[in-house]
Specification:
CATH architecture of the largest domain: 3-Layer(aba) Sandwich
Radius of gyration: 25 Å
Largest sheet: 8 strands, mixed
Oligomer: single chain
Shape: globular
CATH class of the largest domain: Alpha Beta
Distance between the termini: 56 Å
CATH topology of the largest domain: Rossmann fold
Structural class: alpha/beta
Length: about 575
């Protein structure tokens, strides 16, 4: 028997937003030129503003969508309408999947900013109805204006503040007022790296059980939210979930946590507080890993780990607000495995593009360099493809911790035995890598350098300096393949809600002096040139056919100019290679 979409929805377990979901599923959809399905701008706004989708709320949405999907063939509508509903389901599911990963690092940061601002009186000032004009407030209270501005822009981008001509004020929302009133300062005993404590627990270290259980326990009842902005329940959950999931990952446990797995069978050392937290987070249901949980365990460790590596900054946020100079530095040792997780897909994209380029233009390279090497994921992929008989492999990194991790991978046979390493190699100082090539008589040989989210780590970069860095690699004749996340502004982040994890990504890089750049140039809206502009001004030829754009930040159709990709893999050919292969400018 054929049913209407409304009848199908009525047969499903009740969802408090069934009417809004029906409107969205019935709305306009399409497929982008890159093959990604999209919904309408209006449908996205409805979903963003009316459908709670964090943690347990997100799991409820997934159950609802799965129920509709199972009934699709029984719905009385045309084939075109069925396809459209199917596209809408796919987009909404992707939004929920994305939010369950991207929200947690942002909430981890949000909890620590709010705790610090509570401690020094900023929240009481905002709750009293006063605005904060950054320059005046900083001078009056002896604060670092740059750090305060960065904090307030983050709070604004996460929907907690509104912006006026004078500065920032608290958003007129009961949810936000409750959050600012109820949030507490972070106890000193929790101002340690809880990822390490939880990891040690899984390795059999029992001395910190009391600390771990105290940290993971939250007495807050689970409160659904009415729009995308997080309440105190969601903030406290995200703050605890990030180190817990990373502890699983570092201890090598996440590979076992697939949908349907019993958490107690896979992780015998589970504590009750861990199971309760994961259940509130929608990741467990009666001890079984949910669809949402499987997604977080699979995709979460990459972005979680990248953000968590900035714990030294967050732990000293009060000092950063009081002083002009940060006396902390990100610890990339804890970040190395996370970087590998996060970059594995884009390295595959880059290596696939290199294969296509090599095949079409008969470009045979003899040297493969991975800068910002981490555990050598780009090299591992290339080694599996080409072996080491015809290619010399080089790994470069500024920090010893990353080189040490790569050497461990080499000793395990996962990286080529002929791979050499350059220690203390700042990607913003090409001279070290170029000198190494010269000393080993490799300069002038056809070479490729692959980088995963490394160029933004150049501190205090200007447009001119970024061009100069690219120019030196270009003049050295290196085919350059690199991925960078696109810099997004406050309005992008507000509009997309949890559709990227860029708010936290931008924040930690700003407070550590690193520089993200946009994928597109927006004229007067940004003083930073785009990555494309810097590449082209350096003398590199950017080959768009071999570059790759991830999905756009908005999951609905928009003009290309105002809907940049979340990240881009750039394929850059130096002048000497461009001419030798007889390529022509498009």
């Amino acid at each position: 028997m054929e049913l209407s979409l409304l009848q199908v929805i009525k047969e499903l377990p009740n969802h408090s937003r069934s009417k809004e979901l029906l409107n969205i599923l019935s709305g306009e959809t399409g497929v982008s030129s890159s093959g990604f399905p999209f919904i309408s701008d209006n449908s996205f706004k409805q979903f963003r503003d009316n459908i709670p989708l964090l943690f347990k709320d997100g799991l409820a949405v997934l159950h609802f969508l799965n129920g509709i999907e199972r009934k699709l063939t029984s719905i009385d509508c045309t084939a075109e309408q069925l396809e459209s509903i199917g596209r809408a389901i796919k987009v909404l599911r992707t939004i929920v999947y994305t939010a369950c990963v991207t929200s947690t690092p942002d909430l981890w940061i949000l909890r620590q900013i709010l705790g610090t601002h509570k401690e020094i009186g900023i929240l009481s000032h905002l709750l009293g109805g006063s605005e904060i004009e950054v320059k005046y407030y900083s001078e009056k209270n002896g604060l670092n204006a740059d750090q305060l501005s960065t904090d307030l822009h983050f709070l604004y981008s996460r929907g907690c503040l509104v912006e006026s001509d004078r500065g920032f004020a608290i958003k007129d929302s009961p949810l936000v007022h409750e959050l600012f009133k109820e949030i507490e300062e972070i106890p000193d005993l929790f101002k340690v790296n809880m990822v390490n404590k939880i990891t040690d627990w899984f390795y059999g270290e029992k001395t910190e059980e009391k600390l771990i259980r105290s940290f993971l326990k939250t007495d807050l009842p689970y409160k659904p939210i009415k729009d995308w902005v997080a309440g105190i329940t969601q903030v406290e959950l995200g703050y605890r979930l990030l180190p817990l999931v990373l502890g699983f990952r570092v201890a090598g446990l996440t590979d076992k946590l697939n949908k349907g797995a019993s958490i107690d069978e896979q992780i015998p050392m589970m504590l009750p507080e861990m199971a309760m937290l994961l259940t509130q987070g929608g990741m467990l249901d009666d001890g079984i890993v949910t669809e949402l949980g499987a997604r977080v365990f699979n995709r979460g460790p990459g972005p979680f780990g990248i953000i968590s590596a900035y714990h030294p900054y967050m732990n000293q946020l009060r000092e950063l607000l009081a002083e002009d100079d940060a006396k902390v530095w990100v610890r990339r040792g804890a970040n190395v495995a996370a970087s590998q997780d996060a970059n594995a897909k884009t390295f595959k994209v880059g290596n696939d593009s290199l294969n296509r380029f090599r095949e079409k233009y008969d470009f045979e390279f003899e040297v493969f360099i991975e800068h910002a090497v981490g555990q050598g994921e780009a090299t591992r992929q290339r080694f599996l493809l080409d072996g080491e008989d015809t290619i010399k492999y080089i790994g470069a990194d500024l920090e010893d911790a990353a080189i040490d991790k790569a050497i461990e991978q080499q000793e395990m046979g996962l990286l080529p035995q002929n791979m050499q390493f350059i220690r203390g190699a700042d990607i913003g100082d090409p001279g070290k890598a170029i000198q190494f090539l010269e000393e080993n008589e490799l300069n002038g040989k056809p070479s490729v350098m692959m980088v995963g989210n490394g160029f933004h780590e150049i501190r205090q970069q200007t447009n001119e300096r970024m061009v100069e860095v690219f120019q030196k690699y270009q003049e050295a004749g290196l085919v350059l393949i690199f991925t960078e996340e696109s810099a997004l502004n406050d309005e992008d982040l507000l509009y997309t809600a949890w559709n990227t994890y860029h708010a936290g990504f931008r924040y930690v890089h700003q407070i550590s002096g690193q520089g993200l750049r946009p994928a597109i140039d927006r004229g007067h809206k940004s003083i930073l040139w785009s990555w494309r502009k810097c590449i082209r001004r350096s003398g590199y030829h950017l080959l768009e056919d071999y570059s790759y754009r991830s999905r756009s930040i908005y999951p609905f159709k928009s003009s290309r100019e105002e809907n940049p990709s979340i990240s881009v893999t750039y394929f850059c050919v130096p002048e000497i290679v461009f001419r030798s292969l007889g390529l022509k400018t498009s």
